[in-house]
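Suppose a colleague, Dr. K., hands you the sequence of a protein chain of 343 amino acids and asks what its three-dimensional shape might be. Before reaching for any lab equipment, you can write down a predicted structure in token form. Begin with the sequence itself:
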Amino acid sequence: MENHNEKCALKDDLSKVPESYSTIRFIMDFHRGRVNFTRLGDDLHTLSLATSKVQIGNDSLPLLEEAPKKYSFDFQVSVDHDDEEGLYNLFFHNCYGYESVSAFNLTVHIEEKNGENYLSAGEMPLPYLYGTFSALSFCLAMVWIVVLRRHRESVFKIHYLMLGLLFAKTLSMMFHAVNYHFIALEGKHEAAWAILYYITHLLRGILLFIAIVLIGAGWNFIKHVLSTRDKKIFAIILPLQVLANVASIIFEESEESDPRYTTWKEIFVLVDLICYGVILFPVVWSIRHLQQASKVDGKAATNLEKLRLFRLFYVVIVCFIYFTRIIVYLLKVCDFSLVLMCS
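The predicted structure, expressed as tokens, is then:
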């Protein structure tokens, strides 16, 4: 939605618009009770337009007066060919100096469907994908239970925490699959399933960071009591994780045109990266501690083995951050850029 004080898009000379810019321009004619439309650009000449109320003309739509000074019209756009796929934008212009100017209230209802499915082409497999991974995660949890029962003498509390993480991950993906299933059927999620997903997603995120920090700090492995600085890490991580999940919920529930969407998405990315940066500190501290302890006679071999494990753990965390955060973000940016170029 745009208000133009100096330039009116409705008065532009169509012959001067770049050929690469394809658009369908709708102009509301209140005196004649119709909406005139003009196709500009070769890409949209085959795009199918229809209306559900009155027979559509070759260059106009019916503009219905529902009440005094209250008008409505509807149209359907069918993307039937591959070359019509792309990124479509809808703009509303209220131009000063174009015939007459008045205040207005605008309500736009957009319904997007792929046949009988409300999910986009890229999202349609998600209910099955999340359901499959939920079942796989549950099987891994069962395997982990068997491992814990067979090796009770070498089981620490952190292993039970990891089991809880697996179950939280299972429930989170299961609720996410059910939520997407209802979106595909009805075009909106069921509040109950969405709330359950957000709760389990928050729990999974907190358990994941607690497990990583405890392992990185060497709890029950090289020490049985957390140090003061380890506790400070928890005091930083847990509130940040809550903030990151709140930001995630807000921007997922917002439309991209909503100003909150960009703000909270940037907050989520920033806070999430800070969390993953902070959890590296306990690992680095443990590595330094083991490097110093390895110089002590009698414990050199044991400490060197632990040092090798912690260095490997550090590499695993860095790779996890790189592939699940940085690479994913770059792929999304590149994919969006390709869509813009193709459209």
